[in-house]
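Milestone M4 deliverable, item 7.
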Amino acid sequence: MNIVIFLIILLVLVIVHEFGHFFTAKGFGIRVDEFGFGFPPKLFGIKFGETLYSLNLLPIGGFVKIFGENPDDENTFGPDAERSFINKAKWKQAIVLFAGVFMNFLLAWFLFSFGFMSGFPTSVGSAISGYDLEDVNLVIVFVSAKSPAEVAGLTSGDKILYISSGEDAVSDINPDTVKSFVVSHKGQEIEVGYTRGQDENVRFTRMTPVANTEDDKPIIGVSMDEIGIAKLPIFTALSEGMRLTISVTKETALGLYGLISEGIRGKGSFSSVMGPVGMVGIVGDAYQFGFVYLLSFVALVSINLAIINLLPFPALDGGRLFFLLIEKIKGSRINPKVVNTANTIGFGLLILLMLVVTYHDVIKLF
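Output delivered:
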């Protein structure tokens, strides 16, 4: 089931991206030869006007075949050359290339906004002024590897409802009272009552705090936050959805910059990179916690795809935009053979990177 949901998400994300290219290309009078759902081999296709709409066997996205995107003699000098992408003004080419990324950002904004309208999980510390949060709970947002909490079976997303040791118990559950309780019961076994996902049945587990290596204070190895549901009217939801989209975009870009910088310095690690196999597991967790969590995950992936596509690397939209910038500066076209060769090599390297990341995803499962 997780795989099916993941493939549907991937299909939606890529189709939305490709629709941006498709719509703007059509708008500028550029010939679009094919809009493919999935990747070849082709199952069947229906032609409307000049464009073939095809359904392909591999349900891992989609593609748009734009006439003249990969320059050759036919689309540069042939009978339909005036409708070729390569012969349009540079600003029109730039808009067509950027439109896919823009659609991914637009999708993230829509999903975040819809989440706020439906009821979006929000930290008490980030609550929107004038709107009260519903169903506030103490939620585990991170569990340290090999910590007492992980050994006891706690995971991110669990809601802590009860904590005790012997006859002592916390009456008011919040991050401060739970932390104080753990610190005051050094070396003593504590019991935690919690719920997971949409299952309202309370589960119980036991663990013994261990000393923190930094300050020797007892810890169970979790980070917690009070999270409730923010349900907003439509215009406020749209505003907050935009604010969250900008915030996530900024944080994602900074994170990617740090990852690339570490890689250049030889300090990078695949432990912080996730491919399709790893994402399938996250899809399952998000689906278990609820539909809004799944929408949030899709929005996050959409932003990630947009930012990665903007990287000035051959075969990506950012690489093609970079070539356009070079042509604008030099006042003439780059040799088409150079562009096509660079894009082919870039695509091959991206496939190789995906295979390596997938291999590491599989290794993590064992």
